[in-house]
Amino acid sequence: MPNKWTEDSSKHFIAGGLAGIIEVCIAHPFDCMKTRVQIGQYNRIIECIKSTIKNEGLSGFYKGLWPPLIIETPKRAIKFTSFDFFRRAFCAADQYLPEWTRFSLAGLFTGLTEALLVCPFEVVKVRLQSELNIPRSMQKSWNSIALQIIRERGFGTNGLYLGVGPNLWRHGVWNSCYFGIYHNLRSFLSNPFSTENDQKIGLSFRLSIASFSAIIANLANIPFDVAKSRIQGF
Length: 234
Known about the structure:
Mitochondrial carrier fold
């Protein structure tokens, strides 16, 4: 019989995978515009949007979609599973670590794990997003871009792992802030390990906490995100 940890991890894996697919499909146009502004192709987001519509059509907003779509499902699933693992590991040191530290450290190590997984896909995605005004017939596929990078630069920190440093900071800071803030705010109202108490809090309040935590996490990791985009947009 599977133990409770295995059952919980399986649920997190499935939930994370489904959430990842939905998030990528909704957020990718915003990510594409953000990346193009960050690497200096445009000075303003409005200018970027207008130029993309004029020169590439609506499909331009979805350039570079496949790399994050392919990796987002396992990435998000691993995020949930990893956080659950690290949270339980740091909870074993409950008498030594304050609560906010446990959740923040669990988020940090979750982010570092996530960053190593997604870096090659981020490199390919940014390369695709940085290509402007190229006719559809001449656009390269994501896998041909990946093979080109491997042939010319290899797998290391000049190739598929280009920008791995700021990528580690980016994911580490984001997850540390998000999970640390979310779980510690929630702990003011309930036991942070109780699903039953989660339900008593109410969905709207949990969504509010999650949104606030994500905003703070995004603000904290913007510098690392900009550095990553500029390094990878070679």
